[in-house]
Specification:
Elements lengths: L11 H17 L9 E7 L18 H9 L1 E7 L4 H10 L3 H4 L32 H7 L3 E7 L17 E5 L20 E3 L2 E2 L9 H15 L7 E6 L11 H5 L9 H14 L24 H34 L6 E7 L13 H4 L23 H8 L12 H4 E7 L8 E8 L3 H8 L5 H4 L14 H5 L12 E5 L2 E6 L2 E8 L4 E9 L15 H18 L24
Helix pairs in contact: 6-9, 8-11
Length: 576
């Protein structure tokens, strides 16, 4: 990554104007189809892999997502980043997060490590030299709308209204779900933006999930008859903590999880094995040592824990209801058939709890919090999902959000497009959030500026168009030698074909972990390290990792890591 990638804020306005001019001229020069599809991108926040019925759930009511899955294409191996902001940067730009400006997690409580400060790609917001899918589509004649979580920069020049969206109602990161505008841990203030301006007051009876869906419907409705297609980015904050939901929805799940997380993990895992998404003979990942057996908890501890899961389920349920509301609007207005709907979660389930992760340091700072059992999930409470239920929600997969394991980066994903006559079913192709922009750019017949001009100031997209996969022309868009790499907080890995190499710095244990090699076709739970049995594969995968580090300017925050050096690494040097 060259030093020429660095741009000051001073250049942003000039670059933005140049970007729009260049994009408009390229689009006008192309033969645009007379009727292009509408595009609706729906993102859940920290949703577990098996929450949807079609992915091994069933205890949570998700009829609208299940309908999308039944009529569309379900992706069993869809990869995101290991956290919210890293995924969103790749999703909207098709550029690896380390090059897009989100080389590490950013937010109110997260900062780059000292050795990452000032490094290209670690700016903490979308860089000026990446083009968002919204900018591409906006310049090609699409109406572009965004409601929900942004998490790509809070400064005025980096809000969604300045990155290609015509109309927006957004928030930088998670907050209380009601009108309090309190931070996720019960302190601080979160601003909502409407078209880039701070919203001074929220309406009565505000609930975030419903508001984001309602605003999206209003935006689409405002131009539904002018003949121009729309791109809607509906980025829910649900079911990210703090767990809060409407009382009637919470109460409908009362008693549903009294058997505990151990039983739920078995049920979800068995349903996942029977779903066809993974091999029926796959084994579960080992239970984490920090998950106490349900039966060892006191009756009060069980009641509190079960209530947390009831609230979480209500949040997923309420999100599904509001997705259904948006889809019903599209159907009623004859917009649904020619709308490409993409649904995914931004990463694996969140494992924060009162005893692990960043929560123990932040919960004591909360003030005026009412976490009594009868108030959990309601106004004034700060409830966490916990690593216990997160482990259950991931089914057979290992770990959860922030991890490079499958539980952190493999996410549920669905694509539906009725007018295209997609053949319903499961795709086992390796796919990625990086693939969204190339796919819709091809659908809209828009050329990315980095592909249309020599010496472009913009970084080129890295993903693959999924249209050949959606049409049934191919079974895969990547060969066994095309790899996907990922890294966050030194947890890292690379996937190619059936193989995965993963390892890194364990944040919980505070120690370096060795590289491990897994065959995901046989072992999606990542239980059987094949490094010694497959030395040639290990070396090939390690070579992919080293290439990924070099191409993307990855700066590891952990102590010096021999495996990151460019010279050949022997099998005996597997420890990172």
């Amino acid at each position: 990554m060259s030093s020429g990638m660095t741009f000051s804020h001073f250049h942003f306005r000039v670059l933005l104007g140049l970007q729009l001019l260049l994009l408009t001229s390229w689009v006008q020069a192309r033969d645009v189809p007379s009727e292009r599809p509408n595009i609706l991108l729906i993102v859940a926040d920290d949703m577990a892999y098996t929450d949807i019925g079609a992915f091994g759930g069933g205890d949570i009511q998700t009829p609208n997502l299940d309908e999308l899955a039944n009529r569309g294409m379900v992706f069993s191996r869809f990869y995101a980043g290991a956290s919210c902001s890293t995924t969103r940067s790749m999703l909207l730009t098709s550029v690896d997060n380390h090059r897009a400006g989100l080389g590490t997690m950013v937010g109110a409580y997260a900062r780059p490590a000292p050795n990452q400060e000032g490094q290209p790609g670690y700016e903490g917001h979308l860089r000026d030299d990446v083009v968002t899918v919204a900018s591409l589509l906006q310049a090609s004649g699409y109406h572009t709308y965004m409601t929900g979580k942004w998490h790509l920069g809070a400064s005025a020049h980096n809000r969604p209204s300045r990155r290609g969206f015509d109309k927006t109602f957004a928030i930088q990161q998670n907050s209380d779900y009601f009108d309090d505008q309190i931070g996720s841990f019960g302190f601080g203030k979160r601003d909502y933006w409407r078209d880039g301006q701070v919203v001074e007051q929220l309406p009565e009876n505000f609930y975030q999930t419903r508001a984001f869906a309602d605003e999206m419907i209003q935006y689409i409705d405002s131009h539904k008859d002018d003949g121009q297609p729309f791109f809607g980015y509906l980025a829910f904050t649900a079911p990210h903590y703090p767990l809060q939901a409407p009382e009637d929805i919470i109460d409908s799940y009362q008693g549903r999880y009294d058997e505990g997380y151990d039983v739920l993990r078995q049920k979800r895992g068995q349903a996942l094995l029977q779903s066809g998404l993974i091999g029926a003979a796959a084994s579960y990942s080992a239970e984490r040592a920090d998950v106490q057996p349900w039966e060892s908890l006191t009756q009060q501890e069980q009641a509190v824990s079960a209530r947390a899961m009831e609230i979480y389920a209500a949040m997923v349920d309420e999100m599904d209801r509001n997705i259904g509301k948006v889809l019903a609007y599209l159907k009623h207005n004859n917009l649904y058939d020619n709308t490409l709907v993409v649904f995914l979660s931004d990463n694996g389930a969140e494992g924060a709890s009162a005893t692990r992760g960043h929560a123990p340091a932040l919960l004591p700072l909360a003030r005026n919090i009412d976490n009594r059992l009868q108030n959990m999930g309601r106004r004034g409470s700060v409830v966490l999902y916990s690593h216990t239920w997160a482990t259950a929600g991931q089914g057979v997969f290992r770990d959860y959000k922030f991890s490079g394991a499958e539980g952190g980066v493999r996410v549920p994903a669905i694509i539906s497009w009725p007018a295209a006559g997609l053949k319903p079913g499961i795709s086992h192709a390796i796919t990625s959030v990086l693939d969204f922009l190339p796919t819709v750019a091809e659908l809209a017949d828009v050329q990315h500026p980095a592909h249309g001009q020599q010496d472009s100031p913009y970084q080129a997209p890295e993903g693959k168009s999924l249209l050949p996969l959606l049409s049934g022309a191919v079974d895969a868009v990547r060969s066994e030698h095309d790899y996907l790499g990922f890294e966050l907080w030194s947890g890292r890995g690379v996937v190619a074909g059936d193989w995965k190499l993963t390892g890194g710095y364990n944040q919980d244990l505070g120690q370096i972990e060795p590289w491990q090699l897994f065959n995901l076709a046989q072992d999606p739970g990542e239980q059987h390290d094949l490094s010694d049995q497959e030395p040639a594969v290990f070396q090939r995968m390690l070579g992919y990792w080293l290439d990924y580090v070099e191409r993307n300017g990855v700066v590891i925050a952990a102590p010096d890591v021999p495996a990151l050096r460019k010279p050949a690494v022997s099998v005996s040097s597997r420890h990172p």
